[in-house]
Inverse folding.
């Protein structure tokens, strides 16, 4: 019998992936969602944000004519701007509310997650960013198929993109609906429709230009808001972290134990596997990889990762301070807790609301409204980036290269992309609606596992290994896809918690430790076995690709009109 | 570029030096990041007591410093790479491109 477990909190949707990875966490952050009273300052600030982004979209639409404008913002984004936009694309509401909530409930354990979300960035810089910019034009499939067969590799890349985007997007839509329900007192369905409609407008009309600026503004607002709360917290403790931590251990029910690891990591194999998925999955996220085509050259791509790593790392340190601030400010005031009983599970709105409640405690209803609006803006920027990546895979990879075999006009390609954005947006609203009461927590973990087991190995091997052939890349990539999806479906999070079977078939929480080697070995083995004429030509074409990827000679300049 | 210029470039000592030194550097840094992070995870799994040890007589523990240290190390490693790339690799690359143009 299939039993669909009712999700009792936005926690599960929000902390998506994190919880699933380590089930102990799920229990720690569960809390019922109650529809809150309508929050007018928050709605006012949110409307101001939406109006601003619509003006930007309108202006971007007027200047979006060519395919380069639509996919790559005309290549005119600077390294610094792209660094902010990447940070805006990556810092989701899950990391802001979920991690600060986890720090609020268990202290140190929150740090384990924030570290995991950051360490993928150096890998993106060292191995991928510059070479990607040198070889590609609009999507990462441009790079993977540089010397391999256009049809097969673009189909594989599109499947990888759709799988990653679908799981990531559903998790974001469900999280958004619950969050908005909680923050603004709107109905779930309306919340999902508003998010879906806005993301369609940004992407279909403004393309990459509008999406980039939405992400930049959101990153700025989120960093500003988080800095402000952290500042107000530290101010009370004379800017001494030691005083803040000391005060937190006095009021937290777990006392001094919040300063060390709890029981978050109980199964080392699962933890290492999740670690691999996070570390290498980042380098396979299609919406992140696309951002490197918006800058002028490899140098700017390199700088943008440096800035992004700085912003994201700084942000995670802030969430740590915010989580501890929530402990000291909220736990000393029973009015933030149900029935006035101070306990982690009793926090009004659930532990994921720790940062939002702290905004109220440190800055009153206007800071609360501002942070709520920022949380919503955060979701919008992330879903817009995902939608653009999927729409580009439809138009640039499937339509222009596979169906029209390179004979499509630029205009028809962009039109297809806009229609795809519309279709994906409507589908996302529908999926968000039907998944409302289903545990979607495993989906972000799955998205990272698939990105690390399909997109990353194919990209890395085609860039670095001369021997990679179309057969090897396609079969290896598909094996990575099948093993990572199967690993998640057969794991406890889906097989037991969602589908209701008694025992998990796959014993670990994340498949990356197994599916990544399967993909790499698959690519290697089937390339070796491939003795076709095509394979020989592909190996011979490696020199030209290698020279361009290392030196940038012949690289596409995105701003050709 | 034509086949002969590919051969010319592939066999150019400067190109070979660029590729060799840059990829050795990039892979070394990648391994360092992987070891730092997985080392941290292993400490969390197997050395909980060590991480929970307070420093001096305060409440801040070794674990907090190590955790924040991993975040800072990620930023520093990217900074080191960008610095070396800006100052060393870009220069060799510019010289190569100049040689191609005048060839």
């Amino acid at each position: 019998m299939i039993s669909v477990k009712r999700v009792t909190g936005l926690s599960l949707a929000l902390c998506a992936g994190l919880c699933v990875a380590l089930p102990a966490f799920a229990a720690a952050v569960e809390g019922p969602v109650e529809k809150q009273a309508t929050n007018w300052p928050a709605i006012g600030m949110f409307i101001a944000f939406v109006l601003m982004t619509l003006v930007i979209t309108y202006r971007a639409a007027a200047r979006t004519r060519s395919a380069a404008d639509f996919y790559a913002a005309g290549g005119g984004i600077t390294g610094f701007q792209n660094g902010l936009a990447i940070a805006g694309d990556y810092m989701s509401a899950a990391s802001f509310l979920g991690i600060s909530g986890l720090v609020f409930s268990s202290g140190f354990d929150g740090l384990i997650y924030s570290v995991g979300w950051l360490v993928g960035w150096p890998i993106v810089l060292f191995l991928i960013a510059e070479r990607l910019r040198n070889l590609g034009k609009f999507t990462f499939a441009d790079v993977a198929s540089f010397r391999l067969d256009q049809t097969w590799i673009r189909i594989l890349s599109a499947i990888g993109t759709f799988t990653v985007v679908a799981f990531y997007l559903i998790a974001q839509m469900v999280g958004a609906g619950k969050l908005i329900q909680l923050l603004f007192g709107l109905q779930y369905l309306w919340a999902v429709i508003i998010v879906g409609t806005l993301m369609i407008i940004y992407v279909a009309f403004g393309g990459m230009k509008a999406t980039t600026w939405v992400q930049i503004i959101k990153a700025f607002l989120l960093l500003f808001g988080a800095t402000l709360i952290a500042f107000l917290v530290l101010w009370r403790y004379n800017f001494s972290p030691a005083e803040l931590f000391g005060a937190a251990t006095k009021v937290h029910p777990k006392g001094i134990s919040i300063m060390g690891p709890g029981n978050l990591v109980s199964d080392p194999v699962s933890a290492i596997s999740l670690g691999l998925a996070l570390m290498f999955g980042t380098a396979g996220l299609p919406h992140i990889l696309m951002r490197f085509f918006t800058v002028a050259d490899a140098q700017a791509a390199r700088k943008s990762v440096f800035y992004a790593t700085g912003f994201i790392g700084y942000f995670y340190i802030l969430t740590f301070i915010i989580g501890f601030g929530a402990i000291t400010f909220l736990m000393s005031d029973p009015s933030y807790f149900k029935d006035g009983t101070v306990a982690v599970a009793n926090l009004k709105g659930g532990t994921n609301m720790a940062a939002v409640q702290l905004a109220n405690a440190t800055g009153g209803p206007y800071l609360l409204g501002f942070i709520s609006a920022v949380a919503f803006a955060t979701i919008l920027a992330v879903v817009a980036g995902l939608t653009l990546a999927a729409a580009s895979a439809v138009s640039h990879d499937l339509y222009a290269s596979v169906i029209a075999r390179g004979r499509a006009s630029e205009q028809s390609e962009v039109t297809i992309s806009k229609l795809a954005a519309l279709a994906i947006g409507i589908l996302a609203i529908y999926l968000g609606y039907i998944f409302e009461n289903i545990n979607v927590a495993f989906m972000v973990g799955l998205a990272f596992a698939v990105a690390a087991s399909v997109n990353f190995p194919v990209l890395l091997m085609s860039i670095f290994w001369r021997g990679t052939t179309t057969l090897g890349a396609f079969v290896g990539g598909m094996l990575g896809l099948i093993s990572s999806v199967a690993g998640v479906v057969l794991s406890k999070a889906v097989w037991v918690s969602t589908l209701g079977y008694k025992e998990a078939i796959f014993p670990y929480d994340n498949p990356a430790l197994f599916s990544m080697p399967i993909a790499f070995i698959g690519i290697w083995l089937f390339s070796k076995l491939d003795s076709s004429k095509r394979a020989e030509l592909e190996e011979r074409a490696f020199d030209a690709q290698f020279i361009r990827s290392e030196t940038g000679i012949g690289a596409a300049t995105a701003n050709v009109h | 570029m034509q086949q002969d210029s590919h051969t010319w470039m592939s066999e150019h000592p400067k190109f070979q030096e660029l590729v060799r030194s840059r990829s050795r550097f990039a892979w070394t840094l990648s391994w360092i990041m992987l070891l730092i992070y997985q080392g941290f995870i292993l400490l969390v799994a197997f050395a909980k007591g060590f991480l929970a040890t307070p420093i001096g007589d305060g409440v801040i523990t070794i674990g907090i410093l190590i955790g924040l240290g991993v975040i800072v190390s990620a930023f520093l490693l990217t900074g080191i790479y960008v610095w070396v790339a800006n100052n060393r690799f870009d220069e060799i690359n510019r010289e190569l491109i100049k040689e191609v143009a005048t060839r």
In short: Chain A has a mean pLDDT of 87.
